[in-house]
Amino acid sequence: MDLGTHRDAVLPRDAAAATLVARVHDPEVGGPCVAAVRGEDLVDLTGLVPTVSALLEREDAVDLVRSAPGGRTWPLGGVLDATLARRRGAAHLLAPVDLQVLKAAGVTFVRSMLERVIEERAAGDPLRAEEVRARLAGVVGGAVSSVVPGSPEAARVKEVLLAEGLWSQYLEVGIGPDPEVFTKAPVLSAVGVGAHVGVLERSTWNNPEPEVVLAVTSRGRAVGATLGNDVNLRDLEGRSALLLTEAKDNNASCAIGPVLRLFDDGFGVDDVRRTEVSLRVEGPEGYVLEARSSMAEISRDPLDLVAHACGRHHQYPDGFVLFTGTMFAPTDDRHRPGEGFTHARGDVVAVSAERLGTLVNTVTASEEAPPWEFGITALMGNLAARGVLR
């Protein structure tokens, strides 16, 4: 399906007033360039900051992106066209992060938390999910939605669910004192806008997970935001939480983009807290799924999640990005009654937010997605050969 229909929505609605960072793969230099989005151009900043990680560590990052003299320029429209058409022989956008560790917080919204309990109780079998869903709703109702994680009230809810035999490790991290924070994927493995996203061939129950992603410095300070698709295999994780890595970390299973919006006088953490994320899935057979997720409904504040991820207990010398979780857990049947939603190859997934843009990707099997070959060694070698490392 043609991704070009999303072209005009790739950048944030207020892009002209935003401080936007992109990564551009330029075939002429054989590697990625750090770029500022300025009007109708992408301006190369690699001579000043060789990586996005290095850029974010600078106190003057916003000023640098907005006004520092750069190197080459690329026409924004041409790069967007090449990106969405997957013309890899032309300059195109990559995921807007590089050396940062790719972290994720799970079970941070009540709706998705309950769906995690359901897939665990159903042991990864979508046909059993509706039965478990009805039982859980009968016991819990809407009681969990207003519970503050780690509070005395949360402890009382835990007692009720234990008595009913419905307590779960997902409820523990959803309303207990400690959130689930895990490493989503290896450094540099994220794909960007326009790329294929992958699910394992053998997975029969899976879904996209549209999320807001925070960019955090080595000092633990959130300095920007973008969008992500934390592709999830419900059948694998439902069988056992010990399969989380196999469910979450596969070729092309982590999408981030389209660009990174830095926090400045016009956009900050409070704007992230108010962000509404939209999801649209268009199937090759004409199937359409639409949903919305509001960050206002998150059960833990985004900065609390950052504090759990890093501090005296854990450092990230090159910074990290943090998927903040999703409330999206589709239950509508797609292929057969009782099986709920699962992806089909060729699905076009668009994750959107007005002030962050649109991350659009096409679903394929992880085994068939382009292999990940450009790692840390390749990046350092490329930057060294270009003379931009200092």
Structure description:
Strands 1, 2, 3, 4, 5, 6, 7, 10, 11, 13 and 16 form an eleven-stranded mixed beta sheet that branches. The chain has a five-stranded mixed beta sheet with strand order 8-18-17-14-15, with no helix packed on it. A two-stranded antiparallel ribbon has the order 9-12. Helix 4 (110-121) packs across helix 5 (126-140). It contains twelve helices and 18 strands. A hairpin with a 5-residue loop joins strand 10 (210-216) and strand 11. The chain is an alpha+beta fold and 390 residues long.
Please describe the biggest sheet, giving its number of strands, its sense, and whether it closes into a barrel: 11 strands, mixed
Strand runs, count: 18
Mean pLDDT: 89
Structural class: alpha+beta
Beta-strand portion reads 25-35%
The arrangement of helices and strands along the chain is EEEHHEHEEHHHHEEEEEEHHEHEEHEEEH
What's the shape? globular
Uncertain spans, ≥5 residues at pLDDT below 50?
A: none
Q: How many individual helices?
A: 12
Beginning-to-end CA distance, first to last residue: 43 Å
How much is the radius of gyration in Å? 21 Å
Q: Which percent bin holds the helix content? A: 25-40%
List keywords for this structure.
eleven-stranded mixed sheet; 12 helices; five-stranded mixed sheet; alpha+beta; 390 residues
Task: Give the arrangement of secondary structure elements.
Elements lengths: L19 E7 L4 E8 L2 E4 L7 H5 L4 H7 L5 E3 H9 L7 E3 L6 E6 L3 H12 L4 H15 L11 H12 L5 H7 L4 E6 L10 E4 L6 E2 L2 E7 L5 E9 L1 E2 H6 L4 H5 L5 E9 L6 H5 L2 E7 L5 E7 L7 H8 L10 E4 L24 E6 L3 E9 L10 H10 L5
Parallel strand pairs: 6-16, 8-18
Antiparallel strand pairs: 1-2, 1-5, 1-13, 2-3, 3-4, 6-7, 9-12, 10-11, 10-16, 11-13, 14-15, 14-17, 17-18
